[in-house]
Amino acid sequence: MMTDLTATVITFNEEDNIRDCLQSLQWVPHIVVVDSGSTDRTVEIAKEFTEHVYVTDWPGHIQQKNRAIDFAPTDWILSLDADERVTPELRREVQELLSSEPRSAGFSMPRLTWHLGRWIRHGGWYPDRKIRLFDRRKARWAGVNPHDHIELDGKASALAGEILHYSYRDLHQHIDRVDFFTSIAARENDVRGQRGHLFGMFFRAPWKFIRMYLFKKGWKDGFAGFILASIAAFSVFLKYACLWERRTLRRRGIDPDSMPRHHRGPEWRAPRRPPEVTEANL
What we know:
Layout: E1 6-11, H1 18-23, E2 30-35, H2 42-46, E3 53-55, H3 61-71, E4 76-81, E5 84-86, H4 88-97, E6 106-109, E7 111-115, E8 118-120, E9 130-135, E10 139-144, E11 147-152, E12 157-158, E13 163-165, H5 171-191, H6 197-215, H7 223-251
Parallel strand pairs: 1-2, 1-4, 2-3, 6-12, 7-13
Antiparallel strand pairs: 4-9, 5-13, 6-9, 7-8, 10-11
């Protein structure tokens, strides 16, 4: 008997991506889209493909993805991001797999990313396996925002078909995302009481470059590999620098979450009135 399946996608201002994403999922019996208040045509486009479109608040990446699978009418889930596509090979593999009762509670697949005008196959960017097909009765999104992963009750089996990932439009968007996500990561680490920000800036950041470019053979992707390893090292540095900044502000009596932010992503909120400058906090 064919196992029923729902594809879930979370969105925020993804009008440039959502159509291609959902077109690659049209073979799935049910599609659920959970949007966090897009101001562009994302919701309008999503409704062309499914009636199961929900507009909600933004509780965080992990919480929103769990909300999406809770909205699903089936237990088996195929979870995709808006900038991802299912290849025909992966589609056929999943359909064949679900033609009977699946042998595992979850399945991973390689993810191939297009960036800087080429497919990135080294530096830790590939195969970049992700568990995206799973039984929600035995799986849940977990991790530390914004870095989510599936926590599975059991061992995942491997599929050969790929997910195609169009993560960044250009370098400008890549840097903007680094800025955005390092701020989220710094806040999460601050709440958890993580220490070692100086060690992170001085040692973890350069090690990230060495590991990606040399040990994971990022150099095989040409100059693109060098650029990506450099950005990754800067991302690690910035994450720990933001953690240091938050704690420095708090020691001066300033709430770090009250400072103005330039981001307009789903985590952005209007800043509260900044504190007055006095001799005590100079």
